[in-house]
Model the fold of this input.
Amino acid sequence: MTALPQAFLDAPIAHRGLHNCAQGRPENSRAACRAALDAGYGIEIDLQLSRDGVAMVFHDETLERLTHQTGLVREWGAEALCATALTGGHEGVPTLSQVLSLVAGRAALLVELKDQHGAMGPTDGVLESAVGAALAGYSGPVAVMSFNPNMIARLAILLPDVPRGLVTCDYAAEDWPMLDEATRARLRGIPDYTRVGASFISHQARDLGRDRVRALRDTGAPVLTWTIRSAREEAQARQIAANITFENYLPLKRA
Done:
């Protein structure tokens, strides 16, 4: 287990960067990352995989919500994705390597790998390998996490010195229709924390009162939480969470 650096606890973490489309900063864009850097916040980003095996900074499996294009991200090559403008901005979809070059160790960077197969089961390891290659030699504060514990187990082999965490939640049926109840119930209990060598969790704000979350916190595991959207929500979350992932307001910096 590699401990989560203090940088991930010192300043609130901007969810998908400090995004604001009205100001030309779409989520997971380089513009949103630059704004977070300028404001002194940490940065959280999401990763999907391109057709040619490049880690792309993008949340959804499909392009429709965030660009003017259609189809699955994994059906597009990295070069074409980089040339595809994000809606509400003037830049294309960035690669992980581009964001790493931009951040360059100036802020805590929390990297979420999105499940590539829809079942939270075994993976083919392609996205994990792309992340391992991109992060090789990166010296700033960075941590990786995923809802899929199998992805984190693979990253434990590829990136043993990079802190690893699990993204966790209440696994409500309406939010996870692709998973059967047995799988949801299992993941709800966060059973893989020790197996994958996790050193933190990033847990859904509405479910912070769960006994398992409190138990992990009480054993010293840092609990981050998502997604906080007001000072009132932040005050409530910080009764349990060590730090927040936020959007749509500017929390006080606590460094």
Q: What stands out?
A: The longest strand covers residues 42-49. The radius of gyration is 17 Å. DSSP finds nine helices and nine strands in the chain. The chain has a mean pLDDT of 97.
